[in-house]
C-alpha cells in the first residue's frame, strides 16, 4: 500500500468492501425519456464503475408528484423498475456498488409535471423565487400538504426504496439536499407551517426523519444513506442557522443506524463555484456515527487531504467524474483530466456529452 494516495485506499462501508474512496456523485443527466431509465445508461454507468467502487445514481422520482425536470427517471412504476434493472446489472458486472437516489421535487416543479395539472406539493404554499432556482422550467405556486396527507408521501418513499431494491440496487440515498421536498421542510426560510412539521428545529426535521425511519424499516438501515446540504440555499431554500440544522440532523440520524450521511460542503455557496468560508462540516462529521461522505468542488489534492485528515470517509465527485469515466485511474496516475462541457450536462443526446468522454489511452472500458 506504500505510495498509495488516500483516495485509493480501501474502506469498509457497512457490509460493502470498497476498494477506494472516490464516489460517483448523483448526477441528473436528463436522458431518461418518459421518466424511464434508458439502455444508454448501461454504458454510462458501467464506464464509471470499478470493482469495489461506489456509485450513486441520478436522482429518481418516488411518485407521480415527484418530478420537476424533463427526462429524469422515476422508480415508482413497474416499467421504471424493470428499466433500471439492466443498468444496475451493468454496474454489478464491473463489481461496483450502486445506490439509487430517491427524489421528490416538492415545489421545484410546475403544473405540467403534476397529475391532472395540479399544483406541486410542498410544506408551504409560498412560491420559489425564480431568481434562486437552480435550473429548469418556471415553477408553479405549490400547495401546502395537509398534515393528514404527509404519511402518504412518506409511504411513497418507502415503496420507492422497496422498488429500488427490487431493481437490484444495493441501497438508496434519500435526497434531502438542494432545496427539494425534504430540504423544503427542514429550512426555516421555506417552512412556514404551524403544525408539528414546522416551527422548531425538531419539528422541521420531523418529515426527513420519518422518511429515514420508514425507508430503513423497509429495506434495512444498512442500505440507507441520506444527502443533506444544510449550508446551501439552492432553489430558494436557506436556513438562518445551518450549523444547528446540520448538527441536529447528524445526531438524530444516529438513532436509526443508517449507513451513511452525505453532505455538501458549505463552500459551495453557489452550486458550481467554490468560495471561501469559515463554515465546516467537521462538527457534523464528528457527531454522525456512520460513514461520512463529503461533496462539492473536490479535486485530487483536497480529496486526498480530507481523507487523510479525517474530515470524511469518502469523497463524491460530480463534474470531474461526469467528464472522466476513469477518474479513479486518472487520480492513481495523477493523469490530466478531461474538461467537462456544461452545455451537454442536461441535453438528451444518448451519446454526446454522456458516454463519449474519452478514457486514458492505457485504460480499458
Ligand atoms: C449535471 C449535474 C447534475 C446533478 N444532479 C444531481 C442530482 O441528481 N442529485 C444531487 O443530489 N445532486 C446533483 N448534482 C450535484 C452534484 O452531485 C454535486 O454535489 C455538485 O456537482 C458539486 O460537486 P462537484 O464539484 O464534484 O461537481 C448535480 C450536478 C451536476 C453538475
From TrEMBL:
InterPro entries: Aldolase_TIM, OxRdtase_FMN_N, Oye-like. Keywords: Flavoprotein, FMN, NADP, Oxidoreductase. Residues 7-336 form the NADH:flavin oxidoreductase/NADH oxidase N-terminal domain. The keyword NADP applies. Its cofactor is FMN. The keyword Transferase does not apply. SUPFAM superfamilies: FMN-linked oxidoreductases. GO terms for molecular function: FMN binding; oxidoreductase activity. Belongs to the NADH:flavin oxidoreductase/NADH oxidase family. This is 12-oxophytodienoate reductase 2, N-terminally processed like. The lineage of its organism: Eukaryota, Viridiplantae, Streptophyta, Embryophyta, Tracheophyta.
